[in-house]
């Protein structure tokens, strides 16, 4: 996958760091957001079912040094030998419940049999991918992008594999569910809360942009929460790697969140993500996106021609930010061309210490109610009540296209995260293991 770094001068490099380091006032004024569990008072109780520490590695015997507290002692640069880099298969994971459904298949909560660890397993039916011509490219994109991207607010990919019928992505499980399901409980969020979530998402987007990736699909369903309440951006099916100077012309995205240049089929770039960020901030503050209508044509008309109608109760700072992000001309949009400093310094974020935010040191305003990770309490019962069956063993049913029998193989799809990562923060010191 082609990846390029932005120029240090106008990119994320020094100018970004300078913005953080020079602004002591902002650091001192750092926001201490109050914490509450939004649906109950049982803050993060440990589930006995989760207290599993099975070090077995499918019969392989390995030796490792142990510290007094039982931690594995690793020499610098040494990879953890407890986690052999072995390809996974569907049968290595026990399905627990259904979490949701995407356009190519479902997302299950699964438990890795060898370790007892929980993951989200995104299944994609090859037949439906194969029948939609853009599907294969989209799926490869998703796998490659997830593999490459490592960021505290972006959902991690651990394994990717396939059998005859399906592709499988084994992802970091976001037990807090969708950010917007919490919004549905609250209707509108206060400005300091919106600054927190949009701040974490801004850092995630900048990370992607720095890698040359346009996310293109920023929408409520793709903003999940981890057990502590930090944002996890997911679903990279529509992300695209932009070559320097190249524009992406294919139509993607959820229309209410789509930038005008995309709807008008004009060339577009990373600035589309800053438009969607403006829509998301409006949606969080007001309770619905700014451009809605009962037909596709009406929505497109509003997005391309109308100004957003910002209610009177939105503060001047938030109003200013939304207006600057929702500039129809992508070149004038806040954040366009790597001008991230203007976002960091915007008054909407005056109480955010960006360094602390990136280090996950600011307390999330909503702590998801999780009493038992396996119960997936923050997901819709429409899914969690669905019966889950074990993933069928590869039954070699051929399917046809244009009258021909085909057995598509998605070359290069298989992926195993590095052993170091499999034992890293997310897996061992993460909220999941602490519950
Ligand atoms: N890592 C995860 N942890 C927990 N739940 C997840 C995770 N990934 C997805 N989900 C749940 O599954 C639902 C569907 O996810 P998916 O990524 O397939 O959505 P989608 O945007 O419809 O996908 P696509 O655009 O590929 O069709 C999400 O809305 C979310 O509720």
From TrEMBL:
Protein's name according to its UniProt entry: AGC/RSK/P70 protein kinase Psk1
Native species: Schizosaccharomyces japonicus (strain yFS275 / FY16936) (Fission yeast)
InterPro entries: AGC-kinase_C (IPR000961), Kinase-like_dom_sf (IPR011009), Pkinase_C (IPR017892), Prot_kinase_dom (IPR000719), Ser/Thr_kinase_AS (IPR008271), STKc_AGC (IPR045270)
The keyword Lipid biosynthesis belongs to this UniProt entry's keyword annotation: no
Segments forming domain AGC-kinase C-terminal: 350-425
Sequence ranges of Basic and acidic residues compositional bias: 45-58
Pfam families to which the protein is assigned, alphabetical: Pkinase, Pkinase_C
SUPFAM superfamilies the UniProt entry points to: Protein kinase-like (PK-like)
Any one GO molecular function term: protein serine/threonine kinase activity
Region annotation (Disordered) ranges: 39-58
Sorted UniProt keywords: ATP-binding, Kinase, Nucleotide-binding, Phosphoprotein, Serine/threonine-protein kinase, Transferase
GO biological process, one term: TORC1 signaling
Cellular component, GO annotation: cytoplasm; nucleoplasm
Positions of the Protein kinase domain: 93-349
Gene3D superfamilies hit by this protein: Phosphorylase Kinase, domain 1, Transferase(Phosphotransferase) domain 1
């Amino acid at each position: 996958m082609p990846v390029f770094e932005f120029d240090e001068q106008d990119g994320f490099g020094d100018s970004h760091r300078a913005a953080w380091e020079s602004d002591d006032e902002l650091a001192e004024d750092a926001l201490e957001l109050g914490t509450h569990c939004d649906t109950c008072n049982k803050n993060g109780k440990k589930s006995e079912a989760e207290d599993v520490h099975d070090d077995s590695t499918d019969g392989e015997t390995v030796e490792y040094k142990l510290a007094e507290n039982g931690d594995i002692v690793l020499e610098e640069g040494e990879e953890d030998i407890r986690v052999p880099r072995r390809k996974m298969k569907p049968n290595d994971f026990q399905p627990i419940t259904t979490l949701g459904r995407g356009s190519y298949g479902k997302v299950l909560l699964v438990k890795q049999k060898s370790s007892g660890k929980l993951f989200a397993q995104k299944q994609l039916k090859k037949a439906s991918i194969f029948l939609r011509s853009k599907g294969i490219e989209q799926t490869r994109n998703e796998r490659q992008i997830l593999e490459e991207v490592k960021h505290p607010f972006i959902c991690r990919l651990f394994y990717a594999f396939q059998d005859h019928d399906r592709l499988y992505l084994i992802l970091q499980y976001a037990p807090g569910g969708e950010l917007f399901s919490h919004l549905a409980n609250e209707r509108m969020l206060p400005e300091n809360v919106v600054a927190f979530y949009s701040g974490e998402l801004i850092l995630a987007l900048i990370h992607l942009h720095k890698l040359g990736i346009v996310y293109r699909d920023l929408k409520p369903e793709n903003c999940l929460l981890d057990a502590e309440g930090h944002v996890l951006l997911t679903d990279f099916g529509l992300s695209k790697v932009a070559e320097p100077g190249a524009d992406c012309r294919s139509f993607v995205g959820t229309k209410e969140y789509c930038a005008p240049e995309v709807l008008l089929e004009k060339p577009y770039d990373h600035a589309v993500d800053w438009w969607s960020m403006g829509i998301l901030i409006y949606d969080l503050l007001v309770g619905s996106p700014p451009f809605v209508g009962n037909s596709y044509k009406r929505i497109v008309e509003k997005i391309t021609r109308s100004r957003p109608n910002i209610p009177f109760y939105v503060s001047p700072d938030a109003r200013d930010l939304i207006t600057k992000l929702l500039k129809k001309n992508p070149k004038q949009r806040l954040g366009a061309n790597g001008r991230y400093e203007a976002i960091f310094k915007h008054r909407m974020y005056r109480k955010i210490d960006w360094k602390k935010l990136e280090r996950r040191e600011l307390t999330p305003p909503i702590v998801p109610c999780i009493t038992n990770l396996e119960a997936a309490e923050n997901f819709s019962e429409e899914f969690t009540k669905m019966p889950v069956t074990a993933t069928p063993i590869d039954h070699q049913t051929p399917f046809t296209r244009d009258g021909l029998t085909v057995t598509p193989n998605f070359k290069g799809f298989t992926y195993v995260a590095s052993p170091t990562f499999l034992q890293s923060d997310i897996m061992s010191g993460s909220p999941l293991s602490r519950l």
